Amino acid sequence: MIEVENLTKRYGEKRAVDRQDSVVQPGIVTGPRLRRPVNARDLHPGDLMQQCDWTLRVCDVTVSQTTVAITVTEFGFPLHYAADTRVQLVACRAEPRASDPPAIRPGI
After folding, report:
1. 64 DSSP β-pair partners
2. What is the mean pLDDT of the chain?
3. Are 24 and 1 in contact (CB under 8 A)?
4. Residues in contact with 19: Cβ distance below 8 Å, sequence separation at least 6, in sequence order
5. 94 or 51: which carries more pLDDT confidence?
6. For the chain, percent of residues with pLDDT exceeding 70
7. Where are the domains of the chain?
8. Parallel, antiparallel, or unpaired: how do β-strands 105-106 and 54-63 relate?
9. Contacts of 10 (CB under 8 A, 6+ apart)
10. What span, in angstroms and rounded, lies between the C-alpha atoms of 70 and 80?
C-alpha cells in the first residue's frame, strides 16, 4: 500500500498539487491514461469509478443485453445503468486474483 499525506507540488510559482492525501491499495493501477470514460458494461470488480464527487470501488458487475447493475462497496444497493452508458474510470485492478468473483455475470 502507498500512502501520501499533505503532498504539494509546485512548478515555479504554479501550485499543481495542493496538500493532497491519497492511498493506493496493492494491485491497483492508476495514472492519467486510466482516468477516462468507459462503457458501464466494461467495468470489473476492483475498478474504481467516479460518480459525481464520489470515488466508488466496484464489487460486482451484472450485465444483461440492455442494462448493467454495478455493486459498489460504498452503497448497499446496485447502481443501474444502460449498458452503453459512459462512466468515469479512475483506476483498475492490475491483475485479477483467484479469489475475485467473476467479472461479468449474465442476467439481471
Report:
1. none
2. 77
3. yes
4. 6, 7, 8
5. 51
6. 70
7. 27-106
8. parallel
9. 16
10. 6
Comparing CA positions, the residue from 32, 86, 80, 23 lying closest to residue 55 is 23
CB 47 within 8 A of CB 55: no
27-106 CATH, one of 2.30.30.30, 1.10.1200.10, 1.20.1050.10, 2.60.40.10: 2.30.30.30
- Rounded Cα distance, 39 and 20, in Å: 29
What pLDDT sits at residue 104? 46
Q: Which of 27-41, 71-85, 86-100 has the highest mean pLDDT?
A: 71-85
Cβ atoms < 10 Å from Cβ of 95: 8
With beta carbons less than 8 A apart as the criterion, state whether 38 and 99 touch. no
Arithmetic mean of pLDDT, 71-98: 81
